[in-house]
Specification:
With about 450 residues, the protein is α/β, with parallel strands linked by helices. The protein folds into three domains: about 180 residues, FAD/NAD(P)-binding domain (3-Layer(bba) Sandwich), CATH 3.50.50.60; about 120 residues, 3-Layer(bba) Sandwich (FAD/NAD(P)-binding domain), CATH 3.50.50; about 120 residues, FAD/NAD-linked reductase, C-terminal dimerisation domain (Enolase-like, domain 1). Helix content is about 25%, strand content about 25%. It has twelve helices and 25 strands. β10, α5 and β11 form a beta-alpha-beta unit. The longest helix has 17 residues. The chain is globular, with a radius of gyration of 23 Å.
Length: about 450
């Protein structure tokens, strides 16, 4: 069997590894138009902020050439695939034909830059899975002290923290509506905004950008009520699925603009699979189509598609509950499921509680946690959670993600055993769960 994989990021690497584990004789070719293997944008702020010393430290595991060599996978870097010939079951890359029995599209996503008048490409940066983007931004950081970040997603916040860690005197965050709007409701977002302001980040929201210009080596951002002069601009304004090649091949594009797939991750052509940022996802809670562009999803779907190419659609993909975690200025921000706003937009009878838990482990400098839990009043199941703390919250987010994926009733969820030690921050989710159950009027059942 011959498998071609277009895209050498995390999803493509995991797919190739699974294929090799199941079929020692398969011929596997991986193609990337980039000069090096990919890296998730979420890791790049660690180098930019100085937490990791060099870019080389991000190249580990399946980002090293030895990974591919050991598994006898042919990696074609600096090689752009320009056509998929479905009839002849081959791809065209740099005028060469490569036949395939199965094809996996791990095309990723492309940064979206808003159409603001005056953009000229000078001192304007964004991040993708191409490490060259991170290096270019890092070089700008080394010669600058002032920056404007446009966009309020987690990459924008992480870059803001990285710039302050590098001693920037001025970091302005321009947000059109609300920070972390995909993950937090406004009441929880207010806590994050307080953290940003306390650490010297200037917040401007809602921000209406009229134009951008380059003047005397500076970037000038024209707002409806003034002008900002900074050394460079960083765009954290989201990404769109990279679907041009799939469209050209006549594959079905879904309602979200990503490549439509079934539960086996097959596209509208049965021998072609799509994974990661370029595929159309759906949520487990309602089954609604959505985009979910995180490295963890690329890895999950790469695993499934890789095994299905060999085993013949052996594993189904069930969707996502959108678990998320980031860390900004020492605060972990975790979320899973819907925000209360999105739940109501999708027609659910959302009921929520917000609880500030007390500080535990006080003699060990323990910190409080802030919870918001959202339930569906009809099914009495959890459909959303948001947690902010200086303690580690990822374990709680993951536990709630499993409960939501299993559609576990709240009365059962609250009874899950938890570990405890006075040396380790206790999982305090039981307190908000008790309040949520009481608010729903469901008693103990």
């Amino acid at each position: 069997m011959r498998v071609c994989i277009i895209g050498a990021g995390d999803g493509g690497a995991i797919a190739a590894n699974q294929i090799r584990r199941l079929d020692r004789e398969a011929q596997i070719d991986v193609f990337s138009k980039r000069g090096s293997l990919g890296c998730p944008p979420c890791e790049m702020p660690l180098v930019i902020g100085g937490a990791i010393a060099t870019w080389d430290e991000l190249f580990r595991g399946f980002r090293e050439s030895s990974f591919w060599e050991k598994r006898k996978v042919a990696v074609h870097l600096n090689t752009e695939v320009t056509e998929i010939d479905r009839g002849r079951k081959c791809i065209i890359a740099d005028s060469e034909k490569y036949s395939y029995d199965k094809l996996i599209l791990a095309l990723g996503a492309i940064p979206v830059i808003p159409a603001v008048p005056g953009l000229d490409g000078k001192n304007e940066f964004s991040l993708s899975t191409d490490i060259a983007d991170g290096v270019a931004l890092s070089n700008a950081v080394a010669r600058s002290t002032e920056a404007t970040i446009i966009g309020g997603g987690f990459i924008g916040l992480e870059i803001a923290a990285a710039l302050k860690a590098r001693g920037f005197s001025k970091v302005c965050l321009l947000v059109r509506r609300e920070i972390l709007r995909s993950y937090l409701d406004e009441d929880m977002a207010e806590r994050v905004k307080d953290v940003l302001r306390q650490n010297g980040v200037e917040l401007i929201l809602p921000a209406k950008i009229e134009n951008i210009a380059t003047k005397r080596g500076k970037k000038c951002v024209g707002l409806s009520d003034g002008e900002l002069d900074v050394d460079f601009i960083f765009f954290a304004t989201g990404a769109k699925p990279n679907v041009e090649l799939a469209q050209k091949a006549g594959l079905q594009i879904g309602e979200t603009g990503a490549i439509a797939v079934n539960h086996y991750l097959q596209t509208s052509a049965p021998d072609i699979y799509a994974i990661g940022d370029c595929m159309e996802n759906w949520d487990i809670i309602t089954g609604s189509k959505r985009r979910h562009q995180l490295a963890t999803n690329a890895i999950r779907t790469g695993y499934i598609a890789g095994r299905n190419t060999v085993l013949g659609n052996h594993i189904t993909y069930e969707g996502t509950v959108m678990p998320f975690i980031t860390k900004v200025f020492g605060h972990q921000i975790g979320a899973v499921g819907f925000t209360e706003r999105e739940a109501r937009e999708r027609g659910l009878d959302a009921v929520s509680v917000a609880v500030d838990t007390p500080r535990l482990r006080e003699r060990f400098n323990g910190r409080p946690a802030h919870y918001k839990l959202i339930a569906d009043a009809k099914t009495k199941t959890l459909i959303g959670a948001q947690i902010i703390s200086e303690e580690i919250v990822s374990g709680t987010v993951d536990k709630l993600a499993v409960a939501m994926a299993c559609r576990m009733p709240l009365a059962k969820l609250v009874q899950i055993d938890s570990c405890y030690s006075p040396h380790v921050q206790e999982d305090q989710v039981a307190a908000p769960l008790h309040r949520l159950i009481d608010k729903l009027g469901s008693g103990d059942g």
